[in-house]
Design a protein that fits this description.
By secondary structure, the chain is α+β, with helices and mostly antiparallel strands. Helix content is 29%, strand content 35%. A hairpin with a 4-residue loop joins strand 2 and strand 3.
């Protein structure tokens, strides 16, 4: 009898874990869908402007900005992976004051990233190498600086 009760408890626990995993998967799918819609909206905005520039090691970066949506997208191609335990962090340049705009996936040399936060009065953007998880302010010299398109 104790073995049957133990197996029943294990089955209930496994069922709950499976439900939790399904809930998390649904949340991730919804977040991904929302981000894809926001990204597409910026790229398709009537006032979307682009600026492309060279980054380190022959990589290329393009920033697409929509002032009407107050959003920007950064597109990287050919970036070397950051050092182990580090990430590339994007920044908005508000007249010399850097404001975090999110992190890039460290496992991808090509990436399209919806920059976090509004453009506001930013005139440029930068990329730095930061500890995993990012930083509140840049802790290294920028590997790239670009003016935002107007």
């Amino acid at each position: 009898l104790a073995a049957v009760v133990g197996l029943g408890g294990t089955a209930v626990w496994q069922h709950q874990r499976a439900e939790d995993a399904r809930d998390q998967a649904r949340q991730v799918q919804e977040q991904t869908r929302e981000q894809a819609q926001e990204l597409a909206a910026v790229l398709a905005a009537p006032d979307a402007r682009t600026r492309t520039g060279g980054l380190t090691d022959g990589a290329r970066g393009t920033v697409v900005a929509s002032r009407s949506l107050d959003k920007a997208v950064f597109i990287a191609d050919g970036m070397a992976p950051p050092p182990k335990g580090k990430v590339y962090q994007l920044w908005f340049d508000d007249g010399g004051s850097m404001r975090s705009a999110g992190l890039m996936d460290p496992d991808r040399s090509a990436a399209t990233v919806l920059m976090r936060g509004g453009i506001g009065k930013a005139t440029g953007m930068g990329i730095t190498v930061e500890p995993a998880g990012g930083s509140d302010e840049p802790t290294s010299s920028p590997v790239a600086l670009m003016e935002l398109p107007t």
